[in-house]
Each structure stands twice: as C-alpha cells, then as structure tokens.
Write a structure and sequence with these properties.
The protein is an alpha+beta fold. It folds into two domains: 4-79, Winged helix-like DNA-binding domain superfamily/Winged helix DNA-binding domain (Arc Repressor Mutant, subunit A, Orthogonal Bundle); 123-260, Endonuclease, Chain A. It has ten helices and eleven strands. It has an eight-stranded mixed β-sheet with strand order 4-10-9-8-5-6-7-11, with helices on both faces. The chain has a three-stranded antiparallel β-sheet with strand order 1-3-2. Strand 8 and strand 9 (220-225) form a beta hairpin. The chain is elongated and about 80 Å long. The two termini are 44 Å apart.
C-alpha cells in the first residue's frame, strides 16, 4: 500500500484540499475518532479541524455520530470516491454548458470590430502554401476556439499521425463543441474520427462535402484550396465575420442533411 504522503497526494490530485486529504487518510486508519484525535493523527491544525471535518461530511467522505462527544467515521473509499468523481464530472459539465451558452450569447451581443477604411486586406484574408504553414495555421485556429469548431472533411493529410487529433482533443477538454462532416465513402481517416468521437466530437456523413473547411466560433475560417496539378497544399484563412457567415451557413445546411457516422 502506498504510504500516507502518497495517498494524500493522490487525493489532492482528484480535488480534495490538503487538509481534507490528511483528515480522510487519518480517519481510514481508525474505526472512529474525535476531532481532537483526527487533528493529532493528521497534523491538521486544531483551529481548522472542525471546518475540515464538516466539509468532508458534506462531501460524503465521513459521517459523524454521538450526542455528547462527536465522533467521526470514514466512508468506504469505493463509495466515497466514486460519488465524488461523479459529482465533479456533473459540475464540470454544468460549467461547460454555462460557458458555451455565455459565449454563444456574447458572440451575438458584442459589437463587431469597426471597419477602418485603411483595413489591411491580409488581416482579413491570408493565403498560405506548403504543409508546415498549413498545419501551423490549422492548429493555431483550433487553439483559439472558445465555443465550437466545425470541420468539413478535415485535411489531416498534411499532419503526421503523431499529431493527429491533439489540438481537437484539447479543444474538447476545454468544453468546445466539435462537429465533423466526412464523406460517406470509406476513407483513410476513419481511425482518426473514431478517436475524436470517443473523446466527445460529433461526426456525421455528408454524401458530397462541398469543400475542406474548418470554422472557429463562427468568426474565423480556413478553406483548403485544391487544384488538379497542385503539389503543395494551399489554404486561405478568413478572419472577417461577414465573409465567414456564408461558410457557417453552408456548414449548418450540410450538417442538417448529413447522417450520424456511428449508428
């Protein structure tokens, strides 16, 4: 069995405070204990022991009993930790939902950047050539995502397999909604989509994807350009809401028409 310090560290890693972790480990080593006994066994200062034990009881890590002298008993870790993690996952989901709702509202409420007469065209639309610059641009866009990422036939052929999905999964972990449209035929990226779907992405089939496209939060887009004799990938980054809006409408239309990939 790991020593006490290691157990405390592991409990802190899953969300308990240092004092809570010390008290819980101390309680597990006694059938029951008073607050003073827990303080002595755990090393938690006396002024903090009652509030710490009260919090542990509220979080279902211990129970108290006794009318004259209150004694505390630890709840079985299998029950306490399972309920604790379930509650944390629920709280995270609620927080993600609130953040997504707030971001969606802010996108519609905040004013658009003012259109300066001398606005640099390159700030609105930027053309890039070659795999390295293309991958860099795609990954930077994914890293800026705050609420949603929409992808049509993701152009992962530019990336080595070791970098597949890393930035998409990071976005999913931040609570970003990721939607992917892929061709209905068999395609080489099925394993990549399987991995993303397992991480929480939504994947649908589109019979004939209109183009290769990546949209961020409805305000920025990357379109992959194709040419019959092209030997290097080329993409154009679009950073003007008025130009991105039709692409977002296109994606939304294709998404409604598509069918889930995993049924």
């Amino acid at each position: 069995m790991p020593d006490g310090d290691e157990l405390v560290k592991r409990l802190v890693d899953v969300g308990l405070t240092l004092n809570e972790a010390r008290c819980y480990v101390a309680l597990l080593r006694h059938p029951s204990a008073t607050a003073a006994e827990v303080a002595e066994a755990s090393g938690v200062p006396r002024p903090k022991i009652y509030s710490t034990l009260k919090t542990l009881e509220q979080r279902s890590f211990c129970v108290s009993s006794g009318s004259t002298v209150t004694r505390f008993r630890a709840v079985d870790p299998a029950l306490a930790l399972t309920e604790w993690i379930r509650g944390r996952e629920h709280d995270r989901q609620l927080s993600n939902d609130r953040d997504r709702h707030n971001v969606d509202e802010l996108i519609t409420m905040l004013p658009e950047p003012s259109d300066a007469a001398t606005e640099d065209l390159e700030a609105i639309m930027q053309l890039m050539h070659g795999p390295h610059e293309t991958v860099r641009m795609l990954e930077e866009l994914l890293d800026r995502a705050g609420s949603r990422v929409d992808i049509i036939h993701a152009p992962s052929t530019f990336q080595p397999e070791s970098r597949w999905n890393a930035h998409e999964q990071s976005a999913l972990q931040r609570g970003v909604r990721v939607r992917i449209l892929v061709p209905s035929r068999e395609f080489a990226e099925r394993r990549r989509c399987d991995e993303l779907a397992a991480a929480g992405a939504e994947v649908r089939r589109a019979r004939t994807p209109a183009l290769k496209l990546l949209l961020r939060d409805g305000v920025e887009a990357i379109v992959t350009l194709s040419a019959a004799k092209a030997t290097q990938p080329s993409v154009v980054a679009i950073r003007h809401a008025d130009l991105v809006a039709p692409l977002q409408l296109l994606f939304n239309r294709e998404w409604r028409r598509a069918t889930p990939l995993y049924q």
